[in-house]
Design a protein that fits this description.
Strand order of the largest sheet: 2-4-1-5-6-7
Helix content: 40-55%
Radius of gyration: 23 Å
Number of helices: 14
Order of helices and strands: EHEHEEHEHHHEHEHHHEEHHEHHEE
Shape: flat
Strand content: 15-25%
Largest sheet: 6 strands, mixed
Low-confidence stretches: 27-37, 214-225
């Protein structure tokens, strides 16, 4: 399962947000720096209104959504790349996740101390991003030095490519810019991925706003350029309600989706995932694959043996599946497509795989 790390300075609301996401008290959310030391891990269902519609058509006995793993990582401070605070431990935890949600503080609360005694979300982000850049710069500089040493007296094309990529990334990092903004050729990307750089990971910003400010926005997120506004405190309060009470409360506010649901969906997109669906009487289920995955790879998500045994796939759009009342109606409508091994699975595809046992 792919994972997203929740990062930020101490006391910006990371653990409160994590607890709201996981509807738990798993993460310690206290008013002092480093109340989180070891990462807290929680699995969160991805909301998908399509599942119930498909299940109603198929009269499915159960519905199984897809999920994402969130990791609440200890707060980082200025100088972390040189070992300050939890320094290297914090950075090693970030290396293990697939993408980053960075929480920055925009709320004012005299009872929750900001480590720098001020509220400035942009400066919060600048501190975190610089520490990630500096940590990557150490990694790249060391690797570049070793590569140049190994290349002495050699004309190996692979080594030359590696040195070129490292110099390209080093120049970018020295300009205090993340490596994910660079363009790489296919052979260069292999070198870049092998470095496991922190600034290569996709990132989404969560601006933790005041509760009253978020009430004014009726709990809705404003999502532009990879940024979402959420009141972690208010979302945590909603998460403590029963599903029925939470639904009634949100209806009273005139909204259909919490900020957390929007964050989960945005995080899913951040990982560049698509959902395909299977539906029948036993169950209707959402499955996750990376964008661009071919049909056999998608079948392999269900069972690894299906990759080798893949023959073909019955495919239709989920809306057509609902409109024509399931597989029988789809076949009669002419909307059913038979796809082979080279078919690229799309988000919203409803699929039945034919497997040679």
């Amino acid at each position: 399962m792919l994972s997203i790390g929740i990062v930020g300075l101490p006391n910006v609301g990371k653990s409160t947000l994590f607890n709201a996401l996981t509807r738990s008290k798993q993460a310690d959310a206290q008013n002092y720096p480093f109340c989180t030391i070891d990462p807290n891990i929680g699995v969160v269902e991805v909301p998908d209104e399509r599942l119930k519609l498909l299940a109603d058509v198929s009269k499915s006995k159960k519905i199984i959504p897809t999920a994402i793993q969130f990791v609440d990582i200890a707060g980082l401070v200025k100088g972390a790349s040189e070992g300050q605070g939890l320094g290297n431990k914090f950075l090693s935890h970030i290396r293990e996740v697939d993408a980053i949600v960075q929480v920055v503080r925009s709320f004012s609360d005299g009872n929750v101390i900001h480590t720098l005694n001020r509220v400035d979300p942009k400066e919060d982000a600048d501190i975190i991003n610089l520490e990630l850049v500096l940590a990557d710069l150490q990694t790249v500089s060391k690797r570049l030095s070793n590569a140049k040493q190994a290349a002495k007296g050699k004309t190996d094309a692979k080594v030359k490519t590696e040195i070129g990529v490292l110099e390209k990334i080093k120049l970018c990092l020295e300009s205090e810019k993340p490596a994910r903004g660079l363009d790489f050729k296919e052979e260069e990307m292999e070198v870049a991925k092998d470095l496991q750089l922190l600034t290569m990971k996709p990132m989404l910003y969560v601006v933790n706003v005041d509760e009253v400010q978020n009430r004014r926005d009726a709990l809705q997120c404003v999502c532009t350029d990879g940024e979402i506004e959420i009141s972690a405190k208010l979302e945590a309060e909603v998460a403590e309600l029963s599903q029925e009470d939470a639904k009634a409360y949100l209806k009273e506010l005139g909204i259909e989706q919490t900020g957390l649901d929007k964050l989960i969906v945005a995080s899913y997109k951040l990982l560049d995932l698509v959902t395909f669906l299977t539906s029948g009487e036993p169950e209707t289920r959402a499955w996750t694959v990376k964008r661009g995955a071919k049909a056999p790879e998608a079948a392999g998500v269900i069972h690894t043996d299906f990759i080798k045994g893949f023959v073909k796939a019955d495919v239709c759009n989920w809306e057509d599946f609902v409109k024509y009342n399931g597989w029988a109606g789809i076949k009669e409508s002419g909307k059913l497509r038979l796809e082979g091994k080279d078919y690229e699975v799309k988000d919203g595809d409803t699929v039945y795989f034919h497997i040679n046992a």
